[in-house]
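seq as requested:
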Amino acid sequence: MTTTAPHRHRDTPGTGPHRVGLVAATAAGRRHARTLAASWSHARLVEADGVADALRTAWTTCDAVVAFLATGAVIRVLAPLLGDKRTDPAVVVVDEAARHAVALLGGHAGGANTLAAEVAAVLDARPVVTTATDAVDLPGLDTLGWPVEGAVAAVSRAILDGEPVRLVADAVWPLPALPPNVHREPPTGEHRAVGPEPEGGYRVLVTDRVVPVDDRTVVLRPPSLVAGVGSSRGVPAAEVDALLHRALADAGLSPASLRCLASVDVKADEEGIRATADALGVPLRTWPAAELSAVDVPHPSEVVRAAVGTPSVAEAAALRDGGTLLVPKTASAMATVAVARHAPRGRLAIVGLGPGAADLRTPRAVAELRRAAVVVGLDQYVDQVRDLLRPGTRVLASGLGAEEERARSAVAEATAGHAVALVGSGDAGVYAMASPALEYADERIDVVGVPGVTAALAAAALLGAPIGHDHVYLSLSDLHTPWAVIERRVAAAAEADLVALLYNPRSRARDWQLGAVLATFAAHRPPQTPVGVVRNASRPDEQVHLATLATFDPTVVDMYGLVVVGSSQTRLVGGRMVTPRGYRWRG
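struct tokens:
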């Protein structure tokens, strides 16, 4: 399969090909602007005959503007240029001392709120965001990543004010947590037009259908539709676009719910199809003819098979990943279109929280926690992040020893269509929840892995540089692995002269195994080989202990510690463990 993504006019500021214009009037402002320009290759200082002209130029030529000016001056210049918040550039204003980065215009739609945070991070300033939903930690209806129509301001206000709001969806979609006053009704299971809300009621509709909208209704457009497209060579984009929109309109479907256009791979470079996808802002996915020929379709054609190697292009491409055919192939002079509806896919984010300290938790982990409607994890790990969860987040916490239960619960919630975050300490893929969860996850859900700082990395940083060369992770817990197997692995690591990082080294029930393991290493390494143990790395009661194979006392270790056994090359330098890389220039 080949996927071609269209160019997006509005990428996230600071993370892609997003043109940021910098405007400054004073020496201090220009100095701050140069700092941003040095950090972001996509940012440039915009200069003109005067600061007002520079602002106007940046407004018309850039996707976002950072103005090192007073807010009043920026407002007076830009007010006559304001058009629509969906197309106007984002504007962030920074004061003379670079103490604050104010999201002035385009907070959600333009990305100014995100841009303000990124500007503040570079300049060591404080982001100022006044959007109501952000101020009270609620997801804005226009920030969910889906097209939104209708009375966004009125319904958002009702949500903020705690008024009853109905969420009506045709199926369970992986939306983030919403506050308790938003009542999620059971999915109808039917995609039908919905009439106006009874007088006085607010609602959020999640549907790909064209529905009547009043001044108390918001419609979210989920990415549920795939349009298969076939064509003759050289088909005009206008013809593809007109045929597609006519087919959708006749079926009562919204173009805003298109997930992608799909076709056979020989059409991957067909300009008329590509241009249509670009205009719609969706990717073009193409499949080999052999794969499409295996898809069961209602209207196969031997003429099409002879031309491209599959009896169907439009219908087969629309149905390639399953779904229900809503619009059978319909043709114009040079194009063919079919449309299928695809069921929602739940979302499982497997999130590593790091070793414990909040500043060692990745921004991506925080973003996934705030995106989730359901959070699953060990109770003590969930407690670490409760302050990050949005109001309305459902928490499924359990105690030690319930790993399989947590894995099954997280996968079940995602399979039911929810947005789920399964959390674990360190990196979720290292002796943690990723492996058991993925044993149960199947193709019905999307899985996102969020790496975290492992206990080994946190401990190594405190000990010095013990893993500067080859190393191995070993768990000494025989709860799921027979001790005989662990012994063989330890012996292999000792003989291979690898630095060893020992997880689960010792507990009340396993008080002799660590000593036996250290004896195995001592048989292959000098007695002065450094051994370090770090307990509760990065947490308030953090402890670091250094010794050697000859002097190390296993009784100082418990399940909250991680033991690092050096190789024969590891040395203590300045009170720190160092395993040399053996660079040639060290002669």
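Residues 5-17 have pLDDT under 50 and may be disordered.
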